[in-house]
Amino acid sequence: MTIWKQYEPELLTDLYELTMAASYLEEGMFGEATFSLFIRDYPPHRAYFVSAGLEHLKEIIPQLRFCDSSIDYIAATGKFSSSFLDYLRDFRFTGTVRAIPEGRIFFTQEPIIEVTAPVIEAQVLETLVLNVIQMETLIASKAARCVHAARGKGLVDFSFRRTQGVDAGVKVARASYLAGFLGTSNMLAGKIYGIPIFGTMAHSYVTSFSSEMDSFWAFARAFPDDVILLIDTYDTLCGAKKAVEVARYMAAEGRKLRGVRLDSGDLVQLSRQVREILNNAGFGDVKILVSGSLDEFRLKELLDAGADIDTFAVGTRMGVSADAPYFDIVYKLVEYAGQPVLKLSSGKKTWVGRKQVFRYYDEQGRMREDLLGLMGEDHPVGEPLLGVVIDNGHISCPMEPLRVIRDRFAKEWETLPLPYRDIESKSTYPVRISPALQELEEQTAREKTRQEIPGEGEK
Questions:
Q1: Phi and psi (nearest 5°) for 432?
Q2: Best CATH choice for the domain 150-319 from the list 3.30.465.10, 3.30.70.260, 3.20.20.480, 3.20.20.70
Q3: Is residue 2's pLDDT more than 60?
Q4: Cβ–Cβ contacts within 10 Å for residue 357, how many?
Q5: DSSP secondary-structure letter at 120?
Q6: In the Cβ-directed half-sphere of 348, how many Cα atoms lie within 13 Å?
């Protein structure tokens, strides 16, 4: 099952992608083009990114077709010729996609994806590729920071009700699980991706009963093997003592209270006091789960202050990546008809040509530096990160289960040196440029300057 089936994915694009495509057709421009997708700069406090979203693109791109209803809609705009509409009827992606696998860590200026295809095909993919990779990489990177800040404590995604749309909610659940969360509250994501699902109760449930204790008994009767009680509706410490009563009754019946949840108040002090109540009653194995405006900064603050918490339910701030809600991510033409292409715009540098990222490790197996070079370069010691995932329009490697990607990230994380893991990192991972790429870049810039800016090339 996929969330994409509800769409006509060929229309997940901007108008100007189609106007450019129509012009290319009119001009007879069918040369092979390569576009690079990369992130220009880090948001504040960031020092790495976690690749995510590629599997969705592998699912969509080979099947991309313009159905009759899409073509009827495009025709109804009155902007396009009949010859272009005929072209769209036969549209297929016939090119190649090279990419960094999901779950790998990468850095600024490094291509996450390179698309090589006839220019119309490659151009039409721009908006879709940007949207998918931007969103999922954004959340996977944010979630990884939360996992690091939690210092081994469990994390659950509780963000669905406040993500920017239902599709975003499903993607958040997947991306956060990829990055190490235990699971999600999102039922649809649980079904689609096999992610473990978690949930407790709301304050409205508690207040709908004549007393807090009645709500606890009712929930315990309904879910005897999965009881987590929300204890802060009226008074958290009183709620904790009532939870102990439930735990005693369940123990006599041969069952266990799984946990209690706190959602308000001084979480440091209350978590300690609740833990003391549970321990003194002999229920030290009952978990304390906390929710409410959590992200990596708040997690660090709580744990630094000595909060006694077992699991964090992380919602809005992770689900919308509140401190960095977007990346400066771009999809730029770097080669056309066998010739390198670049922009000369100030502050918007692109590296020309088809590229490869080579990773080097130190003696302990940790990342030491990356080398950004041309695709054909030979660096036998460096590990090449980009591989072919779509070839001649067809998937060239199997779709990967989420558990495989999750395991890949866990192993990758262990190779990231500590300074770059810090949630307020001021370190910048070294990415060198190969001499061959540097030379091609400078040569292309000189030639383009002479061509486009009269007099500049002679200075």
A1: -90, 155
A2: 3.20.20.70
A3: no
A4: 23
A5: H
A6: 12
List the beta strands (DSSP E) in 235-376: 259-262, 287-291, 311-314, 329-336, 339-340, 355-361, 367-374
The angle, 0 to 180 degrees and rounded to 10, between the axes of the packed helices 68-76 and 82-89 is: 160
CATH number for domain 3-139+326-454, candidates 3.40.50.300, 3.30.200.20, 3.55.40.20, 3.20.140.10: 3.20.140.10
Nearest to residue 440, comparing CAs of 375, 384, 394? 375
Residue 399 has pLDDT above 70, yes or no: yes
The two three-digit tokens of residue 222, written as one number: 């309904």
197: pLDDT strictly greater than 50? yes
Which pTM value belongs to this model? 0.95
Q: Are 30 and 118 in contact (CB under 8 A)?
A: yes
368 contacts 419 by C-beta, under 8 angstroms:
no
User: Is residue 328 within 8 Å of residue 41, measured between CB atoms?
Assistant: yes
Closest to 103 (Cα-Cα) out of 146, 130, 60, 143:
143
The two tokens of residue 68 are 């009759």
Residues sharing a CB contact under 8 Å with residue 254, sequence separation 6 or more, in sequence order: none
Sign, CA torsion 169/173/174/176: positive
